[in-house]
Predict the 3D structure of the following.
Amino acid sequence: MNDLDKLKHLLEHWIEHNDAHTHTYKEWAAKAEALGEKELSGILVKVVDESKKLKELFNEALKTIK
């Protein structure tokens, strides 16, 4: 496996890993909201939004390899 193949594999892994974390961030944002921690929840929602942008960048990088 050459380095480009490794990078493709890593990008696919990072996308999956990012998705798993994004799901967790959403859950904790909801929990923080339920605890009355509106500011904290809002920050976590921003983290979710940034994670979605990161996924788009990972996918864009992956498309350049395929």
Remarks:
- Residues 3-34 form the longest helix (32 residues).
